[in-house]
Amino acid sequence: MIRFENVTKRYRGTKSPALDNVDFEVLRGEFVFLVGASGSGKSSCLRLILREEVPSDGRVVVLGRDLRTLSSRKVPYFRRHVGAVFQDFRLLPGKTVFQNVAFTLQVIGSSRAFIQQAVPEVLALVGLAGKEKRMPHELSGGEQQRVAIARALVNRPQVLLADEPTGNLDPATSIDIMRLLARINAGGTTVVMATHEANFVDQMQRRVIELKNGVMMRDDSHGGYGDTSGLPTLAPEPVRGAAAVAALTEVLEVQREAAASIARGVEPGITRPAAEAAPAAASASTAASPSTASSAPAASAPPAPSAPSASGSTRPAAASAPAASSADRPAPDATTATPEPAASAAPVAPATTDATVPPSDVASTGVSVGEADRADASESDTEGRVHRTQPVPVIDIPEVEVEELGLADRLGLGTGDQDEVGPTS
Fold this sequence. Notes:
By secondary structure, this protein is an alpha/beta fold. It is 38% helix and 13% strand. It is built from 14 helices and ten strands. It has helices spanning 42-49, 75-79, 97-107, 112-125, 141-153, 171-186, 198-204, 242-263, 274-288, 290-300, 316-328, 359-365, 369-383, 407-410, and strands spanning 2-9, 19-26, 31-35, 57-62, 65-66, 82-85, 159-163, 190-194, 207-212, 215-220. The protein has a six-stranded mixed sheet with strand order 6-7-8-3-9-10, sandwiched between helices. Helix 3 (97-107) packs across helix 4 (112-125) and helix 3 (97-107) runs parallel beside helix 5. It is elongated. The chain starts with a strand and ends in a 15-residue tail after the last helix.
C-alpha cells in the first residue's frame, strides 16, 4: 500500500535533511502512528505520501505508483484515492457543512445524484446528521474537525492521512475523533496518523513508527509512544532560600510590632496601656506579701460584739476565741492568696482555727455553741462583712475498751440512759 525505500528529503537552506534514509512499508488496512518530537520528520512523510513533495533520494511508492516519476498532470487523479485531514481543518468559510463536503465530489466530476446520496451518509458516519445547513463559524472545534474528516472520506479513499487531527481539540473531543478514526479503519481504510498524543498511542496499541531528527528509530507492530521520562515536566521547582526568607520576614514583623509598642508607650510584648497596668501591678505586689495583706484586714476589723445570753450576761470567752485563733494561724501560701483591689473596703479576714471551746466555757456562759454561731453570722450579715468560719466543738468522749463492747455497742445500736455517738456522728 505505502512503501518508503531509503528515502531522503532535503530542503533548501538547511544543513541536515528532514528525512535521512527512511525505510518502511505499510500494508492495506493498517493503522499506523508516526510519533516523534516537533521537527522529527512526521509531516514530511505525509507530504511525500500525498505527493506534495518529492524525495531527494530513494523511492516512495503509494498504491503501486512511484510518486517520483508521477507527472504533475496525473497528481489530481492520484489524490482521489488518498484523503487528508489537517490540524487547522481548512474549511471554506463561505459554504455550509453540506457544501464543504460536497465540494470534493464536485471537483472530481461526480453526479448530483451521487452527491445527494453520499454526503448525508458520510455526515451521519461522523455524527453530524441534521447539521448540513450550518456554517463553519457556527460549529465547535470538534465539529469542524468532523466536517474535515467527512470531506476526506466522502470519496471513499483507500488511504487516510491525518496530521495532528486532535491538536486543537479538548481531551473529550479528541477521544471522540480517535474513536471515529478507529471505526473508519475497521471499515478497511488504511490510516496513517502523525501525533504527539502519548495517551492515545499507548491505549490503542497499534503500529508505531518513531522518528528522531529525520531518522527512523523504531518500528513496533503493537507499541506505545515510547520513553517519556526525558520530557520536561511542569512540576514546580523548589525555590532556594525560601525558608530563610520566611524566617527573616517573621523577624522583621516582630521588630515592627516592638517599635509600634514603644511608640505607644507600651513595653514590647505587652498589649495593655500603662494606665491599665497600675492596678495589675498593685495586685501583684499584694499577692507577693500575703502575710501582710491577710494581717491588715484582721487588725483593722472591729471586735465582734458579744452576744447576750438568756440571763442577760455576755459571752467573753466564746466571742474572743475566733480572733485569738486567727493570730496563731500560720500565714497562707502566696499561691493561694487572693488579693483585693486597693479601692475596695477591707473585708474581715476569715478566722479559721483549730482551737475549740471547752465544754466548761459553754456551761459557764449559758449559751450554746450553735446559738453563738448564729448570732455571729447575723452580725456579719448586718455589717456587710464576709462570713467567718466558726470552729467545730470537740466533745470529750470517755475512753472505752473496744473488747468490752458488744456488737450492738460497736455499731452504735445499744440502748442506754445517756446519748451515745454512733459511727456516723
